[in-house]
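dude i think i finally got it to work??
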Amino acid sequence: MIMGNGLLNTLIPYRATVEGFSPTTVGIIGSAYFIGMLAGTWTAAPIVRRVGHIRAFAAYSAVVSVAVLAFPLAISPLPWVLLRALVGFCFAGLYAVVEGWISAKAGSSHRGRMLGIYNIANFTGSMAGQQTLRLFEAKSFALFSAAASFLTLALVPMAMTRAEPPPIPAKGKLVIRELLRASLISFATAILLGLANGTFWSIIPAYVQRLNLGPGTVASFMTAAILGSALIPWPIGRLSDKFDRRLVIGGLSAAIMIVEIALWYFVKPSPALIYTLGFFAGAFITAIYPVTVSLSVDRLGPDKAVPVSSTTLFLYCLGAIIGPAFVASLMTRYGDRILFAHNAIIHLMMIGFVAWGVWREGPAEIHVKMTVEPPKAPLN
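look at this
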């Protein structure tokens, strides 16, 4: 699934540029993905509640595969904006099913490391999918066909599994108010992560390109960042299973803030330094999200894993839609390095929310719900 999406995330802006789409159009197509994903978070839990996890996954996979195959059949800005939004809508549902399944089946004592392993699969799949670009010409139908094939193949293990799915969500809608009451830290962190992560992954290639360190610098920097994203989540997840997840979020926020200050401080970093900072930036900036999801499920219970995952993704998308456009305007006025000052301030705000939340809520063991063995799903 992630191989298909990873290939698509690079292929669509790349092919759009080859086809002569303007930079503004390419940006709108990119924003359409998050707008579609935002809409998808509203419907994911009701759909899973109606038909079950496996059938919902199959439906989303089928629709997104058809959407991918439609891109080369209608090479024009408006169809691509609509198709990109449809892909985002479907992936909101796919992520809700997968992350909800993991969160519901994993106990609180190992939920963090399970989501960490999922994150490793996520970024490893993304790296592998993007390498498919080397195999075919940019204007060939084959690349879209490969992406659709990966997404269709994701159906096979889900359709053949003998594992019991999680229980059907008790609620078929987002649990925004419940999450806000249960964990202000999770609520605020999800939005702030969207602001920081969406900005980082959307704009950082342009920043590295303008450093003029060589033609391969952008690819090497992104590879280093994705490699960090793939390696760090499991040990961080394991750590969050042993200690207060709120403090882990605060520690990660402090670590990435230090990296961002370093990226802001060095006006002309060497390739070795920029790759090293890129590795740690990718590692820390992505490790916070699975810990946040784990904390949310701890507070609201595994029976609400799907709506919790959808709600966290919804809040994340709100930030991811706003952040890149806002920071791009700041960069036009104050220069490229304002990107890192902005993100450092965002992570400082996370630390503030963690400190306030810990002071207000008290010790973690008083507030974390105990995970019980979920009943068998009545429908799937």
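The chain has 16 helices and no strands.
im so relieved honestly
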